[in-house]
Design goal:
Mean pLDDT: 88
Strand order of the largest sheet: 1-2-3
Oligomer: single chain
Shape: globular
Structural class: alpha+beta
Order of helices and strands: HEEEEEHEHEEEEEEEEE
């Protein structure tokens, strides 16, 4: 009887395997291939699936741009409209006090807040997010974690290149081969005398995160790109004009 028991056990195992295959539609290896979720929104803005662990979908060009090589608009952190002068005196959430400018919104440090103001808000609200305000509710400025994932060498490769005469960083997925191009638009800043300055144009690019610096209210996090490399930083004045590369919510 022992051979019969073994035979029946084998049949039962084969039945369970077949049921599992039916449950998951197919047992072919092709079903495990990642699905490319790149697409175009209702306004013709393209977004790219880089096969990242979080599933983040990245815009193909900057906010205010019409193509990947276009620098687009520059925004102070927490502002939604481009302007000519980027300094504390023109910043929406800063007022003069105590010999320097102090914050009236997005502040987690009483020494940086106006009259000790703190609200504990560490990420941009939709109404103050340049990506959401200009492109709609399905877009937002990336978090610092999303920017770190974007340039993580485990997931992407980076190459400094020139496209249509514009220098920038080409970031390519190791998972699916899709890529995005970040133009080196530098940043915008004004001095104490109101002189507007463009810094690093064609040599580096700076891209805001929606995340406030952990230890100080006057600073926000960003991504800096340059020759074949990129790093995230949390030490830039919020009044500085930088690029925004949006992500899909």
């Amino acid at each position: 009887m022992k051979p019969m028991k073994n035979y029946l056990s084998l049949l039962a195992a084969l039945f369970l395997m077949g049921a599992t295959c039916v449950m998951y539609t197919s047992c072919d290896d092709d079903d495990s291939e990642p699905v490319d979720r790149s697409g175009v929104d209702e306004n013709g803005r393209e977004y790219v699936d880089l096969g990242l662990p979080t599933g983040t979908l990245w815009a193909a060009w900057n906010v205010g741009a019409d193509s990947p090589e276009d620098y687009g608009d520059y925004f102070a952190w927490g502002e939604t409209v481009a302007k000519t002068y980027y300094y504390w005196s023109t910043y929406a959430w800063g007022v003069a006090g105590g010999g320097f400018y102090q914050m009236t919104k997005y502040c987690n440090n009483s020494s940086s807040g106006y009259n000790g103001f703190m609200d504990g808000q560490t990420e941009l609200l939709p109404e103050d997010d340049a990506a959401t305000a200009n492109w709609g509710s399905k877009w937002q400025t990336p978090s610092i974690a999303q920017l770190e994932e974007l340039v993580n060498p485990n997931y992407t490769t980076m190459a400094w290149t020139t496209r249509n005469g514009v220098n920038g960083l080409l970031i390519t997925s190791k998972t699916n081969g899709n890529s995005i191009f970040l133009p080196a638009g530098g940043d915008q800043y004004s001095d104490d005398f109101g002189n507007a300055m463009a810094r690093g144009l064609g040599e580096e690019g700076t891209y805001w995160a929606r995340t406030l610096r952990e230890s100080g209210g006057m600073y926000a996090s960003y991504l800096d790109i340059y020759d074949n490399d990129a790093y995230t930083d949390s030490g830039s004045y919020r009044c500085t004009g930088k690029s925004v590369r949006a992500v899909r919510k």
